[in-house]
Specification:
This protein is α+β, with helices and mostly antiparallel strands. The chain has 24 helices and 25 strands. Helix content is 38%, strand content 18%. The strands form six sheets. Strands 15, 16, 19, 20, 21, 22, 23, 24 and 25 form a nine-stranded antiparallel beta sheet that branches. A seven-stranded mixed beta sheet has the order 7-8-11-10-9-13-12, sandwiched between helices. Strands 14-17-18 form a three-stranded antiparallel beta sheet, with no helix packed on it. The longest helix has 29 residues. The two termini are 39 Å apart.
């Protein structure tokens, strides 16, 4: 490692190996890389192992701890401070000593100022909370401050020359030269001083994909006594343009090429039978991209005001199923396809909107597009639709089925009736929809007059024209709406109502009190605290008030631990609660074996039978709802399309907040779709340049360096990392991987016992990283899993004495979710500890 004296402190860019002695010039140099998307976040300080998700925080750290002002005189400074994309040729020539060419300093300084300004404007345009008419004022203020600062520096320079005794002719010459030089930096952002110039600058970026207006029809409007023709249109963003932009990133291409094969496991869409029979995706000689389409209605105005639905829009998103599941949960990897007013969808239908998408999908699946891309070189890229996922109402609407779930033939996969779903609990007992039966229904619909629908089919879906896709083979249902927001609150309402009637001393106030006490001790899911229950009505009325999906899920996960000490294990309603927890754990599993799928099928049938027996009864207090029926299709969906979590609408619906916030800030509804689509694409450009599509980046903000021998588990580190006890190591108590935060004291699933099959857990003690590596490891305190306690649906653990420790890489974890250990107290003289798993996990 190169050792530099204090006066020779240099900062080395690992992107291009350029060196700078000034922190300010170093920042400007990195900013130029950032402007073209070459920086790789998080930025890692190679001297002290700190990680930063933004350039601003990284440079602030460098200034505080590693610049000349922060170092003690006479102490050596070791190595470079920045490692982005380490290259084998990243070295410094001993001849140049790291000095840069000074002849272009002035020109480079002006360019650096402009790059800083461009970065500022780009960040403001990407922020949904900032109206665009404010940005020119910010730019003007930036220019004014630059002009004032240069004036102050010029005056102070001239005053210094006067005080130094320089003759007046020389001073006049210097002043004349300074006036000339000032013109370049007086208004460095003058080229961005208006909305028009900003749009022109960013629209010309090679990675920018602009929305285009597509005409739907014309209408006549009247304003101020004059009639005029108004064009009704929607906004469409080219899939090919988006893919070309994404494929310019080397890291993104590597994510697309990750190894998806897992022997004997169903992990992703590629493991299902539908992928293996698709004419394009099954062709391993072609580089193909799998598109998952989503649609939903979106209210962009205050629903409490009059005409709240007037400006509602229909939003079409899509994601790329080639990416690993953890990356597809990122906002930056949910791409906008189209925006259309809901009134226009009601007037013209889905076909005019989907027609352009269908044409592009057929073009991309047949011909593709060619180009030179990182990693893969010159290649032809193909793409096609693999799946449509929406909530139940939107799915039926877009596929052309009836949108009422209170009548017969409501299911998009079978011909179920309301009476049949009350007594049939396996898929084989229902008549499934096929392409032949669908064509027969369509023919009967078109040949009949006055018929609204035939066995649920009310119109032909345009998506059937896409090569290799038909809506009857769209094996997709959203577990978020069917289970978490449907079955779970409905059945929890039944369970809690009956428990309050059966168990002495248990009422709604006790339940709310126990939930509050439990959440006060919780170390995970703190943000998903359930709302205070206001009433428990008779079975069949659900929970009140309504909550978000993650709140329902959190309530179900921890309810057995919260109320376990108040209810007898023999209570039939408590057994049904445990069965519901078991069912949801299986449905939300991220990986399946085929035997698990067959077992899930039996669990679903048993669960529906138990519900009818407990709450249906002769009086019919609670009937099975259509969302209960959708459960019977889950096993076959998993076999065809992979785990259900890959079809969840949660990531799509969470992105709706961008449009709601933008519409609230802009308050311009003349052409709201165009405004929102344009702002989204500006945000997409910024996300691509800043690398927000990565979800495997490790960030550590606070850490310290200590000798290995000073740690309690030093022998373990020496053995596993191959280091000496006298070496230094970086340690931290908090670490983040994308949006998942880990902290000391939480538990992790680290393995599985080979004999008992019970999961093995570890309590996080510390995060460590050796100086010679950028990888962080987790030190966990070993615990023993005693048994699975069915009464509280959690694993009982005990601590080792004396303490033993293990070391794991982050990628070695069996599951990435941090877990909470609940300690309710003593039972039979033993202090108990319980860990609740969020879902069923299968070892890879």
């Amino acid at each position: 490692m190169l050792v530099l004296s204090l006066r020779e402190t240099m900062f080395i860019c690992s992107v291009c190996c350029h060196t700078e002695r000034s922190v300010h010039k170093y920042r400007s140099h990195l900013q130029r890389h950032n402007a073209v998307g070459e920086l790789r976040f998080p930025l890692v300080c190679c001297h002290c192992k700190c990680c930063y998700a933004t350039l601003y925080n990284y440079i602030r750290h460098v200034k505080s701890y590693h610049s000349e002002d922060s170092l003690f005189s006479g102490e050596p400074f070791h190595g470079s401070l920045h490692r982005l994309n380490t290259r084998p040729d990243a070295s410094i020539s001993a001849d140049d000593g790291g000095h840069s060419d000074d002849r272009g300093d002035i020109v480079n300084t002006v360019a650096d100022v402009q790059h800083e300004g461009v970065q500022l404007v780009a960040a403001l345009r990407a922020n949904s909370s900032v109206p665009y008419n404010v940005i020119p004022k910010v730019v003007d203020s930036f220019n004014q401050m630059s002009s004032l600062l240069t004036s102050v520096i010029q005056e102070q320079t001239l005053d210094t020359l006067v005080l130094s005794g320089i003759n007046h002719d020389t001073i006049a010459t210097v002043k004349e030269q300074l006036d000339i030089k000032r013109k370049d930096v007086t208004a460095p952002l003058d080229f961005l001083n208006s909305r028009y110039r900003q749009d022109k600058y960013f629209n010309s970026h090679s990675l920018c994909v602009k929305p285009e207006s597509v005409a739907l029809g014309n209408t006549v409007s009247c304003s101020r006594g004059k009639s005029r023709i108004q064009h009704e249109c929607f906004q469409y963003i080219s899939v090919e343009g988006t893919l070309r932009s994404l494929l310019q990133s080397e890291d993104y291409v590597k994510l697309l090429l990750h190894d998806r094969y897992k022997a004997d496991l169903l992990v992703d869409y590629t493991d299902g039978s539908q992928f293996k029979t698709h004419p394009l995706f099954s062709d391993c000689t072609k580089f193909s991209v799998m598109i998952q389409l989503f649609y939903d209605g979106l209210g962009v105005t205050n629903p409490l005001r009059g005409q709240s639905t007037l400006h509602n829009v229909g939003v079409f998103f899509y994601s790329i199923r080639n990416l690993p599941q953890q990356h597809n949960s990122c906002f930056a990897n949910v791409h906008l396809l189209a925006l259309c007013k809901s009134t226009h969808i009601k007037k013209y239908g889905f076909d005019p909107i989907l027609e352009k998408f269908v044409h592009e999908m057929n073009s991309l699946s047949r011909c593709g597009f060619a180009g030179d891309f990182p990693v893969i070189g010159h290649c032809t890229v193909y793409a096609s639709l693999c799946q449509v996922t929406c909530d139940n109402l939107a799915l039926n609407g877009m596929l052309g089925y009836i949108e009422s779930f209170s009548c017969d033939f409501f299911c998009s996969l079978c011909y179920a009736t309301q009476n049949e779903i009350q007594k049939h609990f396996v898929e084989e007992l229902f008549d499934m929809r096929t392409k032949a039966s669908y064509d027969a229904d369509v023919h009967k619909l078109q040949s009949s007059t006055g018929v609204l629908h035939v066995r649920g089919v009310k119109r032909v879906c345009k998506l059937n024209e896409i090569d290799g896709f038909h809506i009857t083979s769209n094996w997709s249902l959203d577990c978020l709406h069917c289970v978490i927001e449907g079955t779970v609150p409905y059945e929890l309402g039944c369970i809690l109502y009956e428990l309050c009637n059966d168990v002495d001393g248990l009422d709604i106030d006790v339940i709310n009190s126990e939930i509050q006490l439990f959440w006060g001790k919780l170390t995970t899911d703190k943000a998903h605290r359930p709302l205070k229950l206001t009433k428990l009505e008779q079975s069949g009325h659900g929970l009140s008030p309504s909550m978000k999906a993650l709140q329902y899920w959190a309530l179900l996960k921890y309810l057995p631990l919260i109320l376990g000490n108040l209810v007898s294990p023999e209570n039939e309603h408590w057994k049904f609660l445990l069965h519901l927890s078991h069912l949801v754990d299986l449905i939300l599993a991220p990986r399946f074996t085929r035997n698990m799928v067959y077992y899930l099928k039996a669990v679903i049938a048993d669960h529906l039978s138990m519900f009818v027996e407990l709450y249906g009864g002769a009086g019919g207090k609670a009937r099975l709802r259509p969302k209960h029926h959708f459960l019977v299709h889950f096993p076959n969906i998993i076999l065809n399309s992979g785990p259900l979590v890959g079809m969840s609408c949660l990531r799509y619906e969470m992105k709706n907040s961008f449009f709601k916030r933008s519409a609230h800030i802009v308050c311009n509804f003349t052409n709201s779709c165009q405004t929102l689509a344009y702002r989204h694409q500006q945000r997409a450009l910024y996300s691509l340049l800043s690398g927000e599509y990565r979800r495997n980046t490790v960030t550590v903000s606070l850490q310290r360096t200590v000798p290995i021998c000073s740690l309690q588990f030093s022998q373990l580190l020496c053995q596993m990392l191959g280091v000496e006890g006298t070496d230094d190591i970086s340690v931290a108590t908090k670490l983040s991987v994308a949006s998942t935060k880990y902290t000391e004291g939480q538990f992790l699933l680290v393995g599985e016992d080979g004999e008992s099959g019970l999961p093995q857990f570890g309590r996080i003690q510390m995060f460590v990283s050796h100086a010679d590596s950028d990888d962080w490891h987790i030190v966990t305190q070993c615990v023993t899993t005693v048994e699975f306690s069915a009464h509280v649906h959690a694993y009982c653990i005990c601590y080792h004495k004396p303490e033993t420790f293990s070391l794991f890489g982050i990628s070695e974890l069996l599951d990435y979710h941090p877990l909470h250990c609940h300690s309710p107290g003593f039972a039979s003289g033993v202090y108990r500890h319980f860990i609740r798993m969020p879902y069923h996990v299968v070892r890879m």
